[in-house]
Automatic annotation (TrEMBL), chain A:
Entry keyword Magnesium: no
A molecular function (GO) term: tryptophan synthase activity
Similarity comment: Belongs to the TrpB family.
Recorded superkingdom: Bacteria
CDD domains referenced in this protein's UniProt entry, alphabetically: Trp-synth_B
Pfam families in UniProt: PALP
Species classification: Bacteria, Bacillati, Actinomycetota, Actinomycetes, Micrococcales
InterPro entries noted in UniProt: Trp_synth_b_CS, Trp_synth_beta, Trp_synth_beta/beta-like, TrpB-like_PALP, TrpB-like_PALP_sf
Cofactor: pyridoxal 5'-phosphate
Pathway: Amino-acid biosynthesis; L-tryptophan biosynthesis; L-tryptophan from chorismate: step 5/5
Keyword line: Amino-acid biosynthesis, Aromatic amino acid biosynthesis, Lyase, Pyridoxal phosphate, Tryptophan biosynthesis
Enzyme Commission code: 4.2.1.20
Record's protein name: Tryptophan synthase beta chain
Domain annotation Tryptophan synthase beta chain-like PALP: ranges: 79-399
Automatic annotation (TrEMBL), chain B:
The species this protein was found in: Isoptericola halotolerans
Pfam families for the chain: Trp_syntA (PF00290)
Catalytic activity, reaction form: (1S,2R)-1-C-(indol-3-yl)glycerol 3-phosphate + L-serine = D-glyceraldehyde 3-phosphate + L-tryptophan + H2O
Transmembrane spans: none
SUPFAM superfamilies: Ribulose-phoshate binding barrel
Positions of the catalytic residues: 55 (proton acceptor), 66 (proton acceptor)
The name this protein goes by in its record: Tryptophan synthase alpha chain
Record EC number: 4.2.1.20
Family the entry assigns: Belongs to the TrpA family.
Top enzyme class: lyase
Functional summary from the UniProt entry: The alpha subunit is responsible for the aldol cleavage of indoleglycerol phosphate to indole and glyceraldehyde 3-phosphate.
Length: 439, 281
């Protein structure tokens, strides 16, 4: 091999490992992940964050909590989620027609089969149990596509909590069916009509509500972002994804996968899967961000390609911002990846070279979306389709480099039911009248 | 000398006012609303009408501590092209207008300052004659960089406490602050309220007991009567939304300025009678 792009990465990793002899990468605790993370929030919230951390640490050491959570995982969510090998999809890595045999074995971790349709339920159930322990009676949440809102409304119904979901006005229109789902589950959906009227502004409103009602309200944050302890806590509630998948792949192929990949919005499904492999230096980790209409267009949500470190919503992390530190709006065909910042642990993994982050454009994602539908009979969430597209790209790169016998593990973070209207419009399956109809 | 800053322009001003038997009126306006030149006119009006300390807000895309009034003004300021550096011009204008008598504090969320460069911002703020900065989303625990820069340039560091703050956090915050401690009167965001929280008086007492020499109260004060009530127990009364609101109408600019002057005057009269016998009655 004339050049070894892997080398610097390995060195950075070895150094980091040397600096953290006592600690595995998988077990790093907040508030900081390298220079990222922290608690950049109003003082009024600090007492609640402290209380949450205390309750979380107590629960971590309490077998009764673990037992209750695993009962819910098994009986309610339907865990463990299976791992499915997708050879007909993988065949398209070798050539676009998919005629040859697959040069790469591709496995999907099926979080789409969870109750409510995505990985989001793992975190929601964990936090909802903590809410009961703290004696709080009301939960609030932000949602973009509606997946986290639906999961939160679900857990609130299950545990008898009052639930209010903040959603950008723009998103309530784009995802009207998910608004109805949340309302059927007994939640109140509040459309947010300030700022960009999307996820970022829904989070602002949720934080304002929390500051005001914190004595009886828990903010059930939906991903590995926000002030400490959220990034660490949400990772812990999702680590089950990677723990299951690691065993399942070992069982199937008798060894670890070569590359593990996921889409990265806030980063919870990715971190949940990566976590089980962080300390296996031979496993490459890839996160795929929303490249939107392309980095050059400025219309994307690729924080690592088009952002810089800054502070938003309580944490220091990579961030889309202008020269004045004002948040730049993000763009993606997938509402779940349409967020200008990213979890601080990902910024850290990026900077130490442990994980690689690449943008995937709207059209690449939609092509991969259609491919999985047609080759495997699985309709993925458009978020997850970004990871599928990234895998196709990476597989082709490896074939070009002559690397064979590779094993890929991809997180299929959610199912595409919520995305049928968007996809139908994208592929021109709806006539103009129907398309106009959802104005 | 250890290089520790022991003086504070804002604290000195609060002491002067205390010596004549009254608390300070601290008035907030965002830079760049409706545009930079007119925001300078507005701040000058506030100075002429009787504020004792000026708080100049940096408009930010994600102001999580602000209610609808200040959000709307910030959004309009950003849409009008306001820049972070414009805050320096407003700070200078306050110094000019008041002959250096009125301290101007910048109120900014952290990211605009981080992006500007914390040390560069402190340097430029000091050079413009600014007194310091209030940081609504920066707690002392995360403020090593800002604190060092503020010490270097002899700027005030105003952190917030809230009714939810524990005794430990009150001590930490009192110790880290210079100028005054900003006591949030209620749990919530900025905006006018019918009644200022009863917890405000308790919080001020607890913050003093935790070691703070000066405590000003903000959130919810909008009338002269409320200013008089809060001024009874606080070193300063902070008013934002009630002032910004006067500028958010569709009236001609001159009328809006008049309204701003009137409300400022009413609030100034409120703090002036806060400690006279009989208080507000
Ligand atoms: C199916 C699915 N995948 C991924 C995401 C992105 O979130 P995260 O990066 O936290 O996994 C979302 C968010 O809504 C989602 O619904």
């Amino acid at each position: 091999m004339p050049e070894q792009p892997e080398q610097p990465v390995r060195d950075a990793l070895t150094e980091t490992l040397a600096h953290q002899v006592a600690e595995k990468l998988a077990d790093v605790q907040g508030p900081y992940f390298g220079q990222f993370g922290g608690r950049y929030v109003p003082e009024a919230l600090i007492a609640a964050l402290d209380e949450l951390e205390t309750e979380f640490r107590k629960a971590q050491g309490d077998p009764a909590f673990a037992a209750e959570l695993s009962r819910l995982h098994r009986d309610y969510t339907g865990r463990p989620s299976p791992v499915t090998e997708v050879p007909r999809f993988a065949a398209h890595i070798a050539d676009a027609d998919g005629d040859g045999t697959a040069p790469v074995r591709v496995f999907l971790k099926r979080e789409d089969l969870n109750h409510t349709g995505s990985h989001k339920i793992n975190n929601v159930l964990g936090q909802a149990l903590l809410v009961k322990r703290m004696g709080k009676t009301r939960v609030i949440a932000e949602t973009g596509a509606g997946q986290h809102g639906v999961a939160t409304a679900t857990a609130a119904a299950l545990l008898g909590l009052e639930c209010v979901v903040y959603m950008g006005e723009e998103d309530t229109r784009r995802q009207a069916l998910n608004v109805a789902r949340m309302e059927l589950l007994g939640a109140t959906v509040v459309p947010v009509s300030v700022g960009t009227r999307t996820l970022k502004d829904a989070i602002n409103e949720a934080l304002r509500d929390w500051v005001t009602n914190v004595d009886h309200t828990h903010y059930l944050l939906g991903t590995v972002t926000g002030p400490h302890p959220f990034p660490e806590m949400v990772r812990e509630f999702h680590r089950i994804i990677g723990e299951e998948a690691r065993e399942q792949v070992m069982e199937r192929v008798g060894r670890l996968p070569d590359a593990v990949m996921a889409c990265v919005g806030g980063g919870s499904n990715a971190l949940g899967l990566f976590n089980a492999f962080l300390d296996d230096a031979e496993v490459s980790l890839y996160g795929f961000e929303a490249g939107g209409e392309g980095i050059e267009s400025g219309r994307h949500a690729a924080r690592f390609s088009g952002g810089a470190p800054g502070v938003l919503h309580g944490a220091r992390s990579y961030l889309l911002q202008d020269d004045d530190g004002q948040t730049r709006p993000s763009h993606s065909v997938s509402a779940g990846l349409d967020y200008p910042s990213v979890g601080p642990a990902h910024s850290w993994l990026h900077d130490i070279g442990r994980a690689t982050y690449e943008p995937v454009t709207d059209s690449e994602a939609m092509e991969a979306f259609r491919l999985l539908c047609r080759t495997e009979g699985i309709i993925p969430a458009i978020e997850s389709a970004h990871a599928l597209a990234g895998a196709l790209r990476l597989g082709r790169r490896m074939v070009d480099e002559g690397r064979t016998d590779q094993v890929f593990l991809i997180n299929l973070s959610g199912r595409g039911d919520k995305d049928v209207a968007t996809a139908a419009r994208w592929f021109g399956l709806l006539d103009e009248d129907t398309t106009e109809g959802d104005r | 000398m250890s290089g520790t800053v022991t003086t504070s322009r804002t604290a000195a001003r609060l002491d002067e006012l205390a010596a004549v038997g009254r608390p300070a009126l601290v008035g907030y306006l965002p830079v760049g609303f409706p545009d930079v030149p007119r925001s300078i006119e507005a701040v000058s009006m506030m100075v002429d009408a009787g504020v004792d300390v000026v708080e100049v807000g940096v408009p930010y895309t994600d102001p999580v501590m602000d209610g609808p009034v200040i959000q709307r003004a910030a959004e309009a300021a950003l849409a009008g092209g306001a820049r972070v550096r414009d805050v320096l011009a407003v700070v200078e204008a306050v110094a000019d207008r008041s002959g250096g008598k009125i301290p101007a504090l910048v109120m900014s969320y952290y990211n605009p300052v981080l992006r500007y460069g914390v040390e560069a911002f402190a340097r430029d703020l000091a050079a413009a004659g600014g007194a310091g900065m209030i940081t609504p989303d920066l707690i002392p625990d995360e403020a090593q960089e800002w604190s060092a820069a503020a010490d270097e340039h002899a700027l005030d560091k105003v952190y917030l406490v809230a009714p939810s703050s524990t005794p430990d956090r009150l001590r930490l915050t009192a110790q880290a602050s210079r100028g005054f401690v900003y006591a949030a009167s209620t749990m919530g965001v900025t905006g006018a309220r019918e009644a200022v929280g009863q917890r405000a008086e308790e919080l001020v007492a607890h913050t003093r007991a935790a070691g703070a020499r000066h405590v000003c109260v903000g959130l919810g004060v909008s009338t002269g009567a409320q200013a008089a009530e809060v001024g009874r127990f606080a070193d300063g009364v902070i008013v934002g939304s009630a002032l910004v609101r006067t500028l958010l109408t569709d009236d001609p600019w001159a009328d809006r300025l008049d309204a701003l002057g009137r409300v400022t005057g009413e609030l100034a009269a409120g703090v002036a009678r806060a400690r006279t016998t009989g208080g507000d009655s």
